[in-house]
Amino acid sequence: MKTLIVEDDFISRRLLQRLLSAYGVCDIAVNGGEALAAIALGWEEKAPYDLICLDICMPGMDGQAALKAIRQQEATLGIGGLKGVKIIMTTASSDPSQIMQAFNTGCEAYIVKPVERQELVQHLMSLGLLGREPDQPNSTGHQP
Question: What b/e readout covers 68-107, taking b as 16+ CB neighbours within 10 angstroms?
């Protein structure tokens, strides 16, 4: 899984990177503009991101504007529906209007910080990015 973490706060970036690096490559952007550049590079290299964790509140281009721009760029490239990148919005705000705006713009999930591993993994599984946690025993009780 190739992930882009878009977060202006160092501690939050570090936590997400620590949680997600077990599942694949994690790149980092510190604002929406940098994220759009990284995403465009991924498309150009034919190695797009599978997941973007996108903070809502950032200086410059915030997460809501970045989400809208990502979905517009995908539409321009003919990428739509289930073929688009999975986007999980992350924020310290539980404001219902921000949550609804994010879902209406096209995010797949929304996590209120602090991000907890179990909640993040559940979202990854529900989005089809993980089959099951690699460190959990299978149905026979044995490690894979």
Answer: bbbbeebeeeeeeeeebbbbbbbbeeeeeebbebbeebbb
pLDDT at 143: 37
The hierarchical CATH code for the domain 3-126 is 3.40.50.2300
The full set of domain ranges for the chain reads 3-126
Phi-psi domain of 79 (left: phi exceeds 0; alpha: psi -120 through 50; beta: other)? beta
Q: Determine the Cα–Cα distance for residues 94 and 99; give it in Å rounded to an integer.
A: 7
Q: Indicate the residue type of 72.
A: Q
Predicted TM-score (pTM) of the model is 0.87
Question: What span, in angstroms and rounded, lies between the C-alpha atoms of 46 and 41?
Answer: 8
Model confidence pLDDT, tens digit, residues 63-94: 999 999 999 999 999 987 788 999 999 988 87
Tokens of 95: 């404001």
Q: How far apart are CA 5 and CA 27, in angstroms?
A: 6
pLDDT digits (tens, 9 = 90+) for 26-35: 999 999 999 9
141, 104 contact by CB (below 8 A): no
pLDDT of 42 > 50? The answer is yes
